[in-house]
Design a protein that fits this description.
single chain; Dipeptide-binding Protein, domain 3; seven-stranded mixed β-sheet; six-stranded mixed β-sheet
Length: 509
């Protein structure tokens, strides 16, 4: 029997009134992905771990991402013309290496990600910034080329976490990811790409110290192995569980199973930039009609997912329901014939093991559905690091690749995934992996960026979503639920809609 969706608020999980609480000496968590590095401007898979190391200027005030609250900046204001933002910083904040956080740190951080040499896939978040001026140690001004309403949202995201000039400048861009220095409650003690990575308390932290002495993360691609580790007490928390792994955990009196919606949408993205057949909208729409997503969610995911009704998952800002593409293989064949492929075609698909729920089973189901309409798919499954290498080396010849996005804010989600962009250098995964481009989507984004009313911006985003949905640059598969197992006695953890987690307030009864 499924667990009800649970809001992870510490107070609700503390057990009976008056139960004794203590700081957990160590909280151990296992997930499906290997960690790459801890440079917020570059990293992909280390986000949740690195969130404990860094802080941002501002933060989101709620899980709906509808408000912004202070963090390293105590307050801010915007000029009448909307071009200049002034931030007033907290005083007395230090990085974990003892160096001071100040206005120069803000200037260095933003100019580093703006520098093309950094090759950040998140550079577009700050592309509208024309200059950063230090007024004094605790006041900094950010000027944009045009009024840019999403700036605060972007500054609240981990990719714009504040860096230390002195610490970061000691290393090359690639080296710094192994030597992270931030203002957050924890710092990196040890890192092992295939073993245990350990965080310990930051002695220079300006706020209330984290409750655990240590936080450790272990990558375990196999769900069954994570389940065993949780049951035997080798780890305290296991993320990315599968539906079939839940019954024994639900029956275990020592384990709490958490089921929570997420903003993650998993899809096969078409490499439109390589030309036919994926540059033909009719082909892409045919593939949407060819796949029975309701059956995938019901039978493979055990109901722990959402059938896509638009390019956004529920919970993302400006989510709009366009009714979905029904399962209709006959219509798919008609569209393929109209597009000039009456006999179908052959293609390649890459998918990563362990990163998305039931990735292999879903990929094989998609392979079967497409075969029924004449599209023969050669499926290549690999561990995440290998998968990224294969994709970046352009292994796929007119193929598609499985990716998920959990970006919770509408502007950045549209801009990063479907905004017109150029392919970056070969060493970095491109932000817009399909190279989809639609001038009307770009126009709507530009108009929204200059509107300081979130309500009005959301209307423009919804229009852009509809265009993307009809253009189908991706074969959308499912919105992914979060399934997490936690050993009883632990509380104070948080799991967010975008599948990030925080453990710095964990206590143990």
């Amino acid at each position: 029997m499924k667990k009800a969706f649970v809001l992870l608020i510490a107070a609700a999980l503390m057990g009976s009134a008056g139960a004794a609480k203590s700081e957990a000496e160590e909280v151990r968590i296992a997930g499906g992905s290997h960690l790459d590095a801890f440079d917020p401007q570059l990293e992909v898979t280390s986000l949740s771990v690195a969130m404990h190391i860094y802080d941002t200027l501002v933060d989101f005030g709620d899980e709906n991402y509808g408000s912004i609250v202070p963090s390293l900046a105590e307050r801010w204001d915007n000029s009448e013309d909307g071009l200049t933002w002034t931030f007033y910083l907290k005083k007395g904040v230090k990085f974990s290496d003892g160096s001071p956080f100040n206005a120069d740190s803000v200037k260095f951080t933003l100019e580093r990600i703006l520098d093309p040499k950094t090759a950040s896939p998140n550079r577009a978040k700050v592309a509208e910034i024309s200059k950063v001026d230090v007024v004094d140690d605790y006041i900094v001004k950010i000027t944009t080329r045009k009024p840019y309403a999403p700036l605060l949202e972007n500054l609240a995201t981990y990719h714009l976490a504040m860096l230390s000039r002195s610490a970061t400048s000691k290393y090359s861009v690639l080296e710094y990811g192994m030597k992270p220095v931030g203002t957050g409650p924890y710092m990196l003690e040890s890192y092992d790409i295939s073993g245990e990575t350990v965080l310990v308390r930051n002695p220079n932290y300006y706020g209330t110290p984290g409750t655990p002495d240590r936080i450790s993360y272990t990558p375990v691609p196999e769900v069954s192995a994570r389940v065993i580790m949780l049951q035997t007490g080798e780890v305290d928390i296991a993320t990315g569980l599968s539906p079939e792994s839940l019954p024994p955990l639900e029956a275990d009196p020592n384990i709490e199973v958490i089921s929570k919606p997420s903003t993650m949408m998993v899809s096969f993205t078409h490499q439109m930039w390589k030309g036919a057949p994926y540059d033909n909208k009719l082909v892409r729409q045919a593939m949407m009609y060819a796949v029975d997503r309701e059956a995938i969610v019901k039978t493979i995911l055990g109901g722990y997912g959402v059938v896509p009704k638009g390019p956004f998952s529920p919970g993302v800002q400006a989510f709009a329901d366009f009714g979905g593409y029904e399962y209709n293989p006959e219509k798919a064949k008609e569209l393929l014939a109209e597009a000039g492929y009456p006999n179908g075609f052959s293609t390649i698909a890459l998918a990563p093991e362990g990163r998305y729920m039931k990735a292999r089973e879903v990929s094989e189901a998609v392979q079967g559905y497409l075969a029924q309409v004449g599209i023969n798919v050669e499926l290549k499954m690999s561990e995440w690091a290998t998968y990224v290498t294969e994709f970046q080396s352009t292994l796929i010849d007119r193929g598609m690749h499985m990716l998920g996005s959990s970006i919770p804010t509408a502007h950045w989600r549209i801009q990063r995934i479907w905004g017109t962009q150029k392919m970056p250098d070969k060493d970095h995964l491109p932000p817009n992996t399909s190279q989809y481009s639609n001038p009307e989507v770009d126009r709507l984004l530009s108009e929204a960026s200059q509107n300081f009313s979130l309500e009005e911006r959301n209307k423009l985003y919804a229009q852009a979503e509809k265009i993307v949905w009809e253009d189908a640059p991706e074969l959308w598969l499912f919105g992914q639920s979060q399934l997490v197992g936690v050993r009883k006695g632990f509380s104070g953890y948080k799991f967010y809609g975008n599948q990030d987690w925080r453990l710095d307030r964990v206590v143990k009864q």
